Amino acid sequence: MSAKMGKWVRHHATTTIVIIGVMLVGALASLLTADITTSFPFGCWSSSDECNSFSYKALGFWAAVVVMAIIAFFNTKAGLEDKIASDRELANASQIIGGTSEKIQLLHEMMATMPPKGFLKQYSKVACNALWKLGEARDYISVKMEEGQTPDPKLIAVYIRQVLHSILEITQVWDSHVRHVSEPHLIYRANIMVMMDTKSLTAESADFFKGILKFYNREHAIYGNPVRFYDSVLWSVPELSTQYSLEGNGFSSGESHDASIAEIALGVRTSLSGSPELRGCVPGAPYCIAARKPYWVDDTEKLWLNEQEDQNLKPLVEDIKGFYSGDSQVARSILSTPLPPQASIEIQAAMASSEGTAKTIDLIGVLNIFCNEKNILQNSQNAHDFISLVSPLAEMVSDLVAYYVECEPKIYSLLNE
Fold it and tell me: Which ranges does the record mark as transmembrane (predicted)?
């Protein structure tokens, strides 16, 4: 038995003895009332003759009272000493983790945002599946390259959609945990936006992106094509999208893309100094590219209210309001995270021919996760914790997207002059 446990047992055993002793003393007092009241010292108050009287029964009673008082005193003293020691240990523990209420509150918040029950098990399953798909894709591409053939981008897109579907599965697990209910009507969607340097675009490519460009200031028409106003554009590739819900909706195999996600382009200005807000970046995918970190949009139907306060984005308010009011059932809330750029460097070198025909920008993309209800993952802290855990899966997606970019003729033509 440990010292603390032994002390706890002794303290509570003594308390029990005191309680039983008090009860016995009370019973003894009721039985010996006559002896107690007629003998010393109570007898002195009523009669001087009885002041000298002596009773062994009364003496025994008073001895019991004294003994129980001594036991109660030392038991109380031991309890106070234990409390002081516990308070001292608690103070030392508090000092170790920072010694402030803010640090303790932070610890509580960290515990509250830990992965929900069942998440890690599902995550392991999903990660193994994604790794397997990545291996299949690499083996397939290697075989095609050895045969001197171009890998089929449609097949690579299937691999990407399967990994995206896996990411949505664990998104649903975490989101249902923080919502405290599993809601079958919730639909989670994911897509990939590929970023391209506008300086490398041909006039034809720039015109293509102008046709699907969203949220840009009409005053930028002085550049001829508003696409040229930006350093880069993010393009939501239609084939690189999927959805997931508890109701299924037929997207589990990854054979088809999610046509409900609009094909759009968004401008990004990365060359300017200052915060993403000062560069006029729209919250979401453009912002997370400019800031190089995830971005969480709790409610797209209220997004335009924030932009109304930003002078750089004020001209875009009506466009943002109009787009998301009609698209709210697809993207009521959004979580965007940049895809790692380093994968494309390795893939580009591996897939370049001996004459160096591969010519692409350093691939940087965005993974978007949408929900048809507001507050996906409930708050920004949960969203960032989630992204930290799924970052290995994001890297796998980045590898597959790099393969896809190199193999898809349409993208290759847009990325290369």
Answer: 12-34, 54-74
Residues 68 and 139 in one domain: no
What global pTM score does this model have? 0.67
Retrieve residue 297's tokens: 């949009």
The identity of residue 6, as a single letter, is G
> Are residue 30 and residue 66 in the same domain, yes or no?
yes
> Do you know the residue count of the chain?
417
Print the domain residue range for 351: 118-415
Considering the domain architecture, whether residues 321 and 206 belong to the same structural domain is answered as: yes
Residue where a domain stops, chosen among 111, 143, 169: 111
Q: Answer with the residue of higher pLDDT: 158 or 28.
A: 158
**Long-range pairs for 117-126 at CB < 8 Å and ≥24 separation?**
117/177, 118/173, 119/170, 119/173, 119/174, 119/177, 122/169, 122/170, 122/173, 123/170, 123/389, 123/390, 126/166, 126/167, 126/169, 126/170, 126/393
Distance from C-alpha of 285 to C-alpha of 273, rounded to nearest angstrom: 18
Q: How far is it, in rounded angstroms, from Cα 43 to Cα 49?
A: 8
Please indicate, yes or no, whether residues 107 and 124 belong to a single structural domain of this protein: no
Beta bridge partners of 235: 194, 265
Token pair recorded at residue 217: 């200031």
Domain co-membership, 383 together with 289: yes
Backbone angles phi, psi at 137, to 5 degrees: -65, -45
What is the helix (H) or strand (E) element at residue 243, kind and residue range?
strand 232-244
Please name the amino acid found at residue 112.
Answer: A
- What are 327-375's pLDDT values in tens digits? 557 888 999 999 876 544 444 444 444 344 444 445 478 999 999 888 8
Indicate whether 286 pLDDT > 70: yes
Q: Are residues 254 and 303 in the same domain?
A: yes
Residues 124 and 89 placed together within one structural domain of the fold? no
CA neighbor of 156 nearest in space, from 224, 220, 237:
237
Do the Cβ atoms of 241 and 189 come closer than 8 Å? yes
Residues 243, 235: Cα–Cα separation, whole Å: 18
End-to-end Cα separation, the chain, in angstroms: 79
Number of structural domains, the chain? 2
> Of 65, 82, 111, which closes a domain?
111
3-class secondary structure, 197 = strand
Q: What is the DSSP string of 70-83?
A: HHHHHHHHHHHHHH
